[in-house]
């Protein structure tokens, strides 16, 4: 009978994600689950807007795709960021956190964002580090897309 | 028992007998001879350890090729588990129970890996010392296509929509499977890596489709 009781308790723990003992029972860290269950800034910005930079990246090793967009004001400050990710919990959490972090930063500051910071904040295990790498690459791609748009705008 | 079922049993047994191993039995110490089936000692009938370093194809007793017949694999799997499953060892020695557990779960793992075209390909790639790289994909046109497909699946509401997407996606994976087979045949591992990477994206979409089908309660 004893094994039955422990089984039931485990089921209850797994279902109620908000209880504090989730850190012990689930394989994802609480920060990942928070971003996964309540992702910030999901959505799209107007791709054609010259103040919007779009980064689209993928990971062939895990089949994840990530789109991350930033909107920059005339002072070079990122005023909005949106993402859409199809992938695992860590990839979704990484891109959600990344959009939160770049908001309010300048383009140059955002370039300094490192995947290791994301991984640290979310306590990602080594096998999931590439998910944070994907988020960093998505930001870089979005910033570079924005730069290219601005430069081609100046030439005209 | 009819003649037909006798013949059938004989064929299966022979295919398991094919995996000859020469070593001494851990239980009775006698040499296990060629004619003795691989799974059990011919003298004391004790279950034997799985061979070290044996790849999944050999373990399952199927020929090592990307184009394996999934029906044959399933048949071999069931046959092996009929002999190896821990349930068969409930009244046997503890050590035999442990070996059966280990052997049986190894067979499960091998079966799961070889059954899916993607995991089979990755496994074969690893046998050749290669793997799908962890670098970031930047082919914009391709990624756009994958993103759109994912979004289509996400927004599909009716049974017709999702089943049409399912059919289309399955066909895509099937086509890639043929290309991977050709690439393996030609020994072009670079192409295999590229194709399996693409297949991974479509397999992720497939997972999403299957989840959607289940959550909609569609019975096929």
UniProtKB/TrEMBL annotation, chain A:
Belongs to the NifU family. GO terms for biological process: iron-sulfur cluster assembly. GO terms for molecular function: iron ion binding; iron-sulfur cluster binding. The lineage of its organism: Eukaryota, Metazoa, Ecdysozoa, Arthropoda, Hexapoda. GO terms for cellular component: cytoplasm. SUPFAM superfamilies: SufE/NifU. Pfam families: NifU_N. InterPro entries: ISCU (IPR011339), NIF_FeS_clus_asmbl_NifU_N (IPR002871). This is NIF system FeS cluster assembly NifU N-terminal domain-containing protein. It comes from the Eukaryota. PANTHER family: IRON-SULFUR CLUSTER ASSEMBLY ENZYME NIFU HOMOLOG (PTHR10093).
From TrEMBL, chain B:
One of its GO terms (biological process) is protein complex oligomerization. GO terms for cellular component: mitochondrion. Keywords: Chaperone, Coiled coil. Residues 148-179 form a coiled coil. Residues 55-127 form the J domain. Pfam families: DnaJ (PF00226), HSCB_C (PF07743). The keyword Glycoprotein does not apply. One of its GO terms (molecular function) is protein-folding chaperone binding. PANTHER family: IRON-SULFUR CLUSTER CO-CHAPERONE PROTEIN HSCB. Belongs to the HscB family. This is Iron-sulfur cluster co-chaperone protein HscB, mitochondrial. The lineage of its organism: Eukaryota, Metazoa, Ecdysozoa, Arthropoda, Hexapoda.
């Amino acid at each position: 009978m004893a094994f039955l009781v422990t089984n039931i308790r485990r089921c209850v723990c797994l279902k109620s994600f908000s209880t504090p003992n989730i850190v012990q029972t689930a394989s994802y860290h609480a920060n990942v689950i928070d971003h996964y269950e309540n992702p910030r800034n999901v959505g799209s910005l107007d791709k054609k807007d010259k103040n919007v930079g779009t980064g689209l990246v993928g990971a062939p090793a895990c089949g994840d795709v990530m789109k991350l967009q930033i909107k920059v004001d005339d002072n070079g400050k990122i005023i909005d960021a949106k993402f859409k990710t199809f992938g695992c919990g860590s990839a979704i959490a990484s891109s959600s956190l990344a959009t939160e972090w770049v908001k309010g930063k300048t383009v140059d500051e955002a370039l300094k964002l490192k995947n290791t910071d994301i991984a640290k904040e979310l306590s990602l295990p080594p096998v999931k580090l590439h998910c944070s790498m994907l988020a960093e690459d998505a930001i870089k791609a979005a910033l570079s897309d924005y730069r290219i748009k601005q430069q081609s705008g100046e030439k005209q | 028992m009819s003649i037909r079922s006798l013949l059938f049993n004989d064929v299966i047994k022979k295919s398991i007998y094919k995996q000859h191993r020469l070593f001494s039995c851990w239980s009775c110490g006698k040499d296990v001879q060629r004619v003795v089936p691989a799974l059990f000692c011919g003298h004391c009938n004790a279950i034997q350890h799985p061979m070290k370093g044996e790849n999944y194809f050999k373990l399952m007793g199927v020929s090592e090729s990307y184009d394996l017949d999934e029906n044959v694999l399933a048949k071999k799997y069931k046959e092996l588990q009929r002999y190896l499953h821990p349930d068969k060892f409930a009244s046997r020695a503890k050590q035999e129970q442990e070996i059966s557990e280990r052997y049986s779960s190894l067979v499960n793992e091998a079966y799961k890996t070889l059954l899916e075209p993607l995991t089979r390909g990755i496994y074969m790639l690893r046998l050749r010392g290669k793997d799908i790289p962890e670098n970031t994909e930047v082919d914009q046109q391709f990624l756009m296509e994958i993103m759109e497909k994912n979004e289509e699946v996400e927004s599909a509401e009716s049974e017709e929509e999702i089943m049409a997407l399912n059919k289309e996606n399955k066909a895509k994976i099937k086509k890639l499977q043929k290309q991977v087979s050709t690439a393996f045949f030609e020994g072009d591992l670079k192409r295999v890596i590229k194709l399996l990477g693409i297949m991974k994206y479509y397999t992720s979409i497939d997972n999403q489709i299957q989840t959607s089908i289940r959550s909609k309660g569609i019975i096929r």
